[in-house]
């Protein structure tokens, strides 16, 4: 679901639930050398919610995203290893400027 509280602002919420068959997971067998092996999980489930805020101005835009998830091995009801339960991402995009005359590039290109 998306909500636009004011021009240039957008808030989005999304829920997800993924069931995965035969997920391959790396398991450490020696914590000194971190040697390990890939193991096949019969059934896994990753579910959660994602919240995103996006702001767009005339010359730049910014976004902030947060995800909270529950990655589980369904066969034995344990947490999946090496899967983030919480993540946050932020970013800024600045529109390209035309160096010759200093005017903003409106072609949609950004860096």
Summed up, what is this model?
By secondary structure, the chain is an all-beta fold. Helices cover 0% and strands 64% of the residues. The chain has strands at residues 2-3, 9-30, 35-56, 60-73, 78-79, 86-94.
List the helices and strands and how they pair.
Blueprint: E1 2-3, E2 9-30, E3 35-56, E4 60-73, E5 78-79, E6 86-94
Antiparallel strand pairs: 1-2, 2-3, 3-4, 4-5, 4-6
Question: Could you describe the 3D structure shown?
Answer:
This protein is an all-beta fold. It is built from no helices and 6 strands. Strands 1, 2, 3, 4, 5 and 6 form a 6-stranded antiparallel beta sheet that branches. A hairpin with a 4-residue loop joins strand 4 and strand 5. It is elongated. The two termini are 28 Å apart.
């Amino acid at each position: 679901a998306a909500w636009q509280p004011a021009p240039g602002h957008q808030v989005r919420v999304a829920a997800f639930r993924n069931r995965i068959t035969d997920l391959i997971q790396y398991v450490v067998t020696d914590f000194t050398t971190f040697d390990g092996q890939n193991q096949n999980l019969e059934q896994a489930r990753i579910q959660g919610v994602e919240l995103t805020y996006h702001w767009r101005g005339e010359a730049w835009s910014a976004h902030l995203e947060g995800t909270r998830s529950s990655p589980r091995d369904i066969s034995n009801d344990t947490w999946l290893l090496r899967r983030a339960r919480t993540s946050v991402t932020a970013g800024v995009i600045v529109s390209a400027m035309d160096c010759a005359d200093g005017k903003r590039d409106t072609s949609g290109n950004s860096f």
